[in-house]
Amino acid sequence: MARIVGARAHLVDLEVEQERTDAVQAFLKQETVFVELDTDDGLTGTGYTYTIGTGGTSVLALLRDHLLPRLPGRDARRVEAVWRDLFASTRATTVGAVTSLALAAVDTALWDLRCLRAGEPLWRLAGGSHDRVPLYDTEGGWLHLSTEKLVTGALASKAAGWPGVKLKVGKERPAEDVERLAAVRAAVGPGMDLMVDANQSMSRSDALRRAAAFEPFGLAWLEEPLPADDASGHALLARSTSIPVAVGESLYSVRQFREYLERGAASIVQVDVARIGGITPWLKVAHLAEAFTVDVCPHFLMELHVSLAAAVPNGRYVEHIPQLRAITEGELSIEAGHAVPPEAPGLGIAWSRDAIEDRRRA
Ligand SMILES: [Mg+2]
Fold first, then answer.
1. Which helix (H) or strand (E) holds 318?
2. pTM of the entire predicted model
3. What is the C-alpha end-to-end distance of the chain, expressed in Å?
4. Is 331 helix (H, G, I), strand (E, B) or coil?
């Protein structure tokens, strides 16, 4: 059998590996919430979720007080049934960020168990579409970096054979964004993908104006130009610019994605496996996007998203922001600018148990 006989959660703080800023915030630390599930056939599945600095203890409390007590006795193989039961049990706080983050910690642990039991890596069990996925770098594009540093970072990525780099935008004056983009485009030439990310910082008029100013740089996408709950604003913008509009890191349910896709408001889907509630809904969003002929370029969490982007036919890019080095062994495998999904059975993340214990806050 595969009955759940033990369920635990704990919280680990990870310092950011480098200073990271965008138009609206700084990434202060990664609060990483782990869930471990033991089954009566002797397996332990490890799942996780995260915040970039606030709310981690709320996620932990929801897990400990409400979600984990429902798990003992459940069949760990019935992932959909468990997910639906947990979602229904938190009806008054769904759809919502904290609940989705908590569900993700449980769901990824269930998928770890599923893969361990099958003896298969996640990327193959979830679909096995690609054995590698193009990688783009965000670490060289933060908003506080000087134009000179942006150029240096982009040239280093190009020299390493990476196909794309992302720059944060949303400087006080549009001309500053344009100057930075022009310098990077001139340095790397026309053959590299450049993406920009506004982190929901713009008004509709500002987004229309800046998108027009960005048009000459042949951008791969403009990410989160407007507040994430303004689907009609994104639809308006998408009709007004040739730059693909990318959204998804701040959406928390499959139906929120459906609304964006139905309205033509998203040309790139950036579903985040933690914020959507786990691998189970992540795959639904990816397949939904495929039905709209839209690619998936997931947000952050490269250690897990490499396997998910490889699993689905429309997995287009993995975002390079390393943040688990302090608590894992080994590195993301990168070959010629592509991320290679791990072959180890399970989620494929080699956790360092001692390092996790050392950093445990709660
Ligand atoms: Mg973003």
1. strand 318-320
2. 0.97
3. 32
4. coil
Q: Give residue-wise pLDDT tens across range 77-88.
A: 999 999 999 999
- Cα dihedral 235, 238, 244, 247, rounded to 10, equals -20
Rounded CA-CA distance 124/118 in Å is: 11
Q: What is the pLDDT of residues 230-264, one digit of tens each?
A: 999 999 999 999 999 999 999 999 999 999 999 99
CB 360 within 8 A of CB 10: yes
How far is Cα 300 from Cα 249, in angstroms, rounded to an integer?
A: 9
**Nearby residues of 127 by Cβ (< 8 Å), 6 or more positions away:** 283, 311, 312, 313
Q: How many angstroms separate the alpha carbon of residue 114 from the centre of ligand 1?
A: 30
Centre of ligand 1 to C-alpha 299, Å, is 7
DSSP assignment letter at 244: P
Q: Which residues are catalytic?
A: 168, 299
Q: CA 51, CA 236: separation in Å to the nearest integer? A: 30
Q: How far is the CA of 68 from the centre of ligand 1 (A)?
A: 31
Separation of 225 CA from ligand 1 center, angstroms? 10
What residue type is 124 in one-letter code? R
Ligand 1 centroid–CA 270 distance in Å is 8
Q: Rounded to 10 degrees, what is the CA torsion of 267, 272, 275, 278? A: 120
Mean residue pLDDT of the chain comes to 97
